[in-house]
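Subgroup meeting minutes
Present: P.N., E.W., G.H.
Scribe: E.W.

1. P.N. recapped why we're keeping a running log of single-chain structure predictions: easier to compare across weeks, and new members can see raw inputs and outputs side by side.
2. G.H. added today's entry (176 aa).
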Amino acid sequence: MDEPAQPLLARYPTKMQASSQRAFHSDWFSHYEWLEYSQQQDAAFCFVCRHFPAPSANADVAFTTTVSRTIIDLLTEERARQIRDNRMYLSAVVDVLKFTAIHRLAQRGHDESDGSLNCGNFLDFLHVVGKYNETVGQKLVNLPANAKYTSKDTQNEILTVMASMVRGTIVDEVKE
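Output recorded in log:
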């Protein structure tokens, strides 16, 4: 059985994508053993998918043909989606904190653990937002606890930044 074609070139061709120069990187071979690169087509492919295609007519051909976009395009799009989703989630966290602060609602509850009946206004409201916003809901469920931006310390930091922004606006208005 052949191994994936993984030529180690001194330099791979670059392409202009989203106002940035993009190029294949050989270090991806160490992260993705299944990845292969075609010098002729300047494209990356999935070795297994290309050599053992699924018999279904509905099989995804993204990693096996050049009719679809290259893997670099797919990775770029996935990264952009992740950034967009992360920004949406963090915006929801900040907006919920802002709402509870403006309405002088207590942020925290007696027991903020998962499954608690009284998580506090902040977490309860964030979960309501998550019910109606799939991205926020998925992040609340799937992110590790240290990456949810919902701890009391993170809440305090965000509130401190918001307070500093308000003070800055007031100082600017007074100076005018």
